[in-house]
Amino acid sequence: MDAAFRSRRFCYAVLIIAWALTVLPNLGSASLWDIDEGLNAEAAREMYESGDWVVPRFNFQLRDAKPALQYWCQALAYRVVGVNEGGARLPSALGVLVAAAAVYELGRWMYSAAVGALAGVVLVSSGLVVILGRFANPDALLLACTSLTFLAFWRGYWPPTEGEATRTAWFVPFGAACGLATLAKGPVGLVLPSFVVLLFLVWQRDVKNLWNRRLLWGIGAFVLVALPWYLMVTIETRGEFARGFFLKNNVQRFLSADHSHRGSIFYHALFLLVGFAPWSVWILPVLGCAGRDTRQRVAGDSATAGGRFLLVWLGTYLTFFSLSATKLPGYGLPMYPALALLTARFIDGWRRGVVKPRRGLMIYSASWLILIGGILSIGFAVFSGGLGIEMTWFRPVPALADLIPWGLLLVAVAVGSIIFACLRQRSAAVSWLMTGCVIVMAGLMGGTPAKFDSSKSSRPLLVACGITRSDQEWRLATYLYFQPSLVFYSQREVQRWDDEQRAIEHLAVPTPAVLFLTSSDWDKLKDRLPGRILARAWDMYHREEIVAVGNESAWASIDASAVAQRSAKRQP
């Protein structure tokens, strides 16, 4: 095993295969998830179609929630693979691959090639990482940029030969990587990495490393990468983007919960048990081992200093986002590379007999995977409706029954690793565990998302109405209801009405017009709305049907479209 890991080609082949299995299958098959995917995919589409690469817009209005890097990457993906769900998610998928490569190199430099490779596999088979690698938002890009930032620091700071003095070659690449992270998500791309480095240098008693003229070059690299776009968008929008982004979407979100996304101060610590699964079953012994490794008074070797650095990295991000009033799972994603490296260090140490946890601890922790696999299988059976359990808050998705075997496979993976461990075949146990977790995660994440398409209303409604065709004129609006993916799939402006009279007036026009509203609101207004139902679809977000109501011109357009399609099918 160690001989194979000495080859970079072999390690990168392993990482790419693991990433391709967990992230790429059916990447573009599922329709967009609202709200974030619809917002980001459409903002990138409008940037791509308009050619304005400075000012982000959604529904043809300024969008000040996120910086531009996500939209730039999505727009480039649209150019390569087309304007579709796969193009919207491709940057996130590639972001996970970049993060895995950075984690591998960081682990190789800190510890060994085996630790680096194992850490990369752990990262790309962790639940939240895979989910967000298949999701069109900036979190995976921030993950990639954060990983590159800390790789740039460590490679430029720690000497290649033990016993040599620490170096100061990290400032410029660190500053440039922070600039990219700031373009991906905002100030956290600079503030948190800088704070991590400062705390680490304090722990190492090496703060003097900062007093170097290269610090100015690092600041210059950051300014050169991040500042031009922020200046241009501020000037173009006369300060409106800067006020909305920095004050509302950063400061205000930290101080007060946004859109009811609130939670306990322990939210992110507890969510690690879910988001880092299946590897979270070892999280307590991993942290205990890391703590013991850093107790030396003076860190004179890469492993001890690396453990300190990873703990500071993990602790800084966990503390910051725990103190933030707004809580979302994706906020904690930059912690996962540090945790993946610590986990890989622990598992590889156990494999080689260097790390000696209490007797039976590894078997006990692996046994939790049996419980997780059982819960997954039972959960899929329940949510598919197979057990006949009625849920008022969830409509069963029968297709989820196809995923029951994947939970059982995780049980088999856990049992196999326990058997190998009991036989003292530790390398075989690690190989079996790594391979099995990648395969299980590939099956779960590749098969689950598209099964919910029958419970998302935007794409089927627009397809049924023929509104996805760009050669017809349509006026679209919603009443007391809105989903961003409506704008993406229609590729038109969708007006939002909260006033009953405006909704009535929207349909009282000679051109084709469609109004989207919930079935309950339709029951209240159907006697006053000048239109009929064109299509209806179940919406899991509102837990009721959404109806598309069209005026007479819309009905005529649909009839003409249907006739044209039937005629085209008859042609030889």
Verbal overview:
The chain is mainly α. The chain has three domains: 2-251 and 264-357, no CATH class; 363-455, no CATH class; 458-570, D-Maltodextrin-Binding Protein, domain 2 (3-Layer(aba) Sandwich), CATH 3.40.190. It is built from 24 helices and seven strands. The strands form two sheets. It has a five-stranded mixed sheet. A two-stranded antiparallel ribbon has the order 1-2. Helix 3 (36-50) crosses helix 4 (69-81) and helix 15 packs antiparallel against helix 16 (336-352). The chain is globular and about 80 Å long.
State the helical fraction.
55-70%
In DSSP terms (H or I, runs of 4 or more residues), the helix count works out at: 24
Tally of individual domains: 3
Poorly predicted tracts of residues: 566-572
Largest sheet: 5 strands, mixed
Give the end-to-end Cα distance, rounded to a whole number of Å.
Answer: 60 Å
Indicate the structural class: mainly alpha
Characterize this entry briefly:
62% of the residues lie in helices and 6% in strands. The protein contains 24 helices and seven strands.
How is the secondary structure organized here?
Elements: H1 2-5, H2 8-23, H3 36-50, E1 57-58, E2 61-62, H4 69-81, H5 85-110, H6 113-124, H7 127-133, H8 139-157, H9 171-184, H10 188-203, H11 214-236, H12 240-255, H13 267-275, H14 283-293, H15 302-323, H16 336-352, H17 361-383, H18 404-422, H19 426-447, H20 458-465, E3 475-479, H21 485-490, E4 494-497, H22 500-507, E5 513-518, H23 519-525, E6 532-539, E7 544-550, H24 552-570
Parallel strand pairs: 3-4, 3-5
Antiparallel strand pairs: 1-2, 5-7, 6-7
